[in-house]
């Protein structure tokens, strides 16, 4: 692998099916503000969560090929569904370090007083081998209930987080399990990070586990361990690749509080 010692000006690639991964990008930019990032929102293929794994894997490969061509020194798969479908194969194929997402079963199982935890994730994530292994390895001692968030990511992508519709949708998805005693909800999809306020408003007192900061910390650790950090004094920056409707993406991102002073459009994969 190419090494630049402790100073590597190449960008960090980050991708998701849409705005969800911005939750991870926000943490990355906070923890590693000197880095240059390229964020891919694969909105032309949104949603990933209800597609067969092979299709999501194909998109993940197309996007990572594009990021590799842009010189990415690290790729953060800021999507649980894509991580579930492809991270093992991506790691094998590309000579680039990868950091991916897995639902936070471990911290939730360890901290739930009632020992009853809801994992809210897409059907694609919940059907995957990665999830099955994480529950097996880290879920012991707690009751782990998997709840597929049908339509929740689409609400977020449409800019409806924080609305009465979002409150209604989280009530529908989580109400029965919380009434049955679950006290902890794991946000197992990066889009759902933007529903944390709706979940708290609807179910005060329920703990919410969001792994976006932990994933960003892991990415920073990889940059440090592998001598890939940006040189001091380098100008941070952000490039955006949006495979679908740019205006819709920017409108939703703005509603979520992001001002993406992005470089001009880059070619889509
Ligand atoms: N943000 C993606 C995840 O973390 C899923 C959204 C989608 O269904 O495309 O799983």
Keywords:
single chain; 269 residues; alpha/beta; Rossmann fold; 4-stranded parallel β-sheet; binds D-glutamic acid
Main β-sheet, in a few words?
Answer: 5 strands, parallel
- One letter per element, helices H and strands E, the order comes to EHEHEHEHEHHEHHEHEHEH
Rg over CA atoms, rounded to whole Å, is: 18 Å
Average pLDDT across residues? 93
- Tell me the helix content: 40-55%
Domain count: the total is 2
Broad shape? globular
Task: Please give the order of strands in the largest beta sheet.
Answer: 4-3-1-2-9
Task: Determine the N-to-C terminus distance.
Answer: 24 Å
The CATH class designation of the largest domain is Alpha Beta
CATH topology of the largest domain: Rossmann fold
Secondary-structure class: alpha/beta
Just name the CATH architecture of the largest domain: 3-Layer(aba) Sandwich
Strand content: 15-25%
Tally of helical runs: 11
Low-confidence stretches: none
Q: How many strands in all?
A: 9
Q: What ligands does this structure carry? A: D-glutamic acid
Walkthrough of the structure:
- By secondary structure, this protein is α/β, with parallel strands linked by helices.
- The chain folds into two domains: 12-101 and 213-264, Rossmann fold (3-Layer(aba) Sandwich), CATH 3.40.50.1860; 105-210, Rossmann fold.
- It has helices at residues 22-31, 53-69, 80-93, 105-111, 123-126, 129-138, 152-157, 164-179, 196-202, 212-225, 246-255; strands at residues 12-16, 36-41, 74-77, 98-99, 116-121, 143-148, 184-187, 207-209, 237-242.
- A five-stranded parallel sheet has the order 4-3-1-2-9, sandwiched between helices. It has a four-stranded parallel sheet with strand order 6-5-7-8, sandwiched between helices.
- The longest helix has 17 residues, at 53-69.
- It is globular.
């Amino acid at each position: 692998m190419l090494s630049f010692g402790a100073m590597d000006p190449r960008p960090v690639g980050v991708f998701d099916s849409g705005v969800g991964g911005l939750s991870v990008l926000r943490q990355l930019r906070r923890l590693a503000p000197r880095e240059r990032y390229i964020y891919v929102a694969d909105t032309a293929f949104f949603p990933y969560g209800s597609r067969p794994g092979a299709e999501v894997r194909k998109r993940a490969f197309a996007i990572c090929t594009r990021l590799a061509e842009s010189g990415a020194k690290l790729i953060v798969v800021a999507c649980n569904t894509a991580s579930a479908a492809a991270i093992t194969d991506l790691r094998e194929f590309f000579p680039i370090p990868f950091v991916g997402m897995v639902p936070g079963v471990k911290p939730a199982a360890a901290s739930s007083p009632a020992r009853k935890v809801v994992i809210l994730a897409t059907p694609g994530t919940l059907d995957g081998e990665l999830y099955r292994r994480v529950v097996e390895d880290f879920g012991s001692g707690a009751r782990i209930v998997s709840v597929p968030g049908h339509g929740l990511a689409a609400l977020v992508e449409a800019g409806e987080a924080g609305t009465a519709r979002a409150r209604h949708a989280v009530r529908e998805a989580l109400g029965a399990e919380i009434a049955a005693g679950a006290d902890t909800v794991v946000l197992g999809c990066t889009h759902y990070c933007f529903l944390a306020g709706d979940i708290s408003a609807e179910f005060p007192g329920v703990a919410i586990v969001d792994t976006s900061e932990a994933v960003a910390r892991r990415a920073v650790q990889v940059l440090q361990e592998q001598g890939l950090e940006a040189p001091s004094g380098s100008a941070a920056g952000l490039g955006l690749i949006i495979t679908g409707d740019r205006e819709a993406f920017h409108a939703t991102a703005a509603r979520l509080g992001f001002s993406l002073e992005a470089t001009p459009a880059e070619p889509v994969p």
